[in-house]
Amino acid sequence: MDTTATLFLKSLLVGLSIAAPVGPIGLLAIQRTLDQGLRAGLATGLGAACADACYGALGAWGVALVIDWLVGARLWLATFGGVLLLWMAWSTWRQPPAAQAAALPSQRELLRCFAGTFVLTLSNPLTILSFIAVFGALAGQAGAGLAALPLVAGVFLGSALWWLALSLGVARVRERFGVRWRQRVARGSALVLAGFALWQGVGAWQHA
């Protein structure tokens, strides 16, 4: 049987690998870091990391009723997520870039960044199915109860480390982007987010 440390490292890599591909959350984190700074980008990413940890917990502890409901509701979750993505795309398109690259977001804006990506990640059916499959297998190696807790902590830490690295990397170069370039990035991100929304919605209804 794998040791707790080994399983923790495996779950950390799972969290990292699921967070790392550039998708709608990554685009939001990049755009918000450029426009509002490190804290906004990190808050965006941590919302996704917390949602990843929630699904990791469901997979690790095998909450059958909740898992069955989520799998059955994945069509409607995908639809809700698509609508939320469209709203984020529209908000990103309309929001003027900050006049100062060093402007700090308010606590309310940080909470909005966190909450939006938390809900968006929870509504992603691919995240649901990925964590159920992977963590069901890892939890079988770890055992039940508190023994599975390091797996949940590992996936959160792996995901959070990715968002920290991404936000730090973008924050280091954000001063090189003037208002015009940051507006172009925002508009481009909005278009890609809308594309993700349409792709997610069409794909979900085709496989319904």
TrEMBL record:
| InterPro entries per the UniProt record, alphabetical | LeuE-type (IPR001123)
Answer whether the UniProt record assigns the keyword Chaperone to this protein: no
Superkingdom to which the source organism belongs? Bacteria
Q: Which GO terms describe its cellular component?
A: plasma membrane
Pfam families reported for this sequence: LysE
Q: Which UniProt keywords apply?
A: Cell membrane, Membrane, Transmembrane, Transmembrane helix
As one GO molecular function, the record gives: amino acid transmembrane transporter activity
Topology versus the membrane? Multi-pass membrane protein
- Compartments in which it is found: Cell membrane
Transmembrane domains' residue ranges: 12-30, 73-93, 114-138, 144-164, 185-205
What is the protein named? LysE family transporter
Q: What is the lineage of its organism?
A: Bacteria, Pseudomonadati, Pseudomonadota, Betaproteobacteria, Burkholderiales
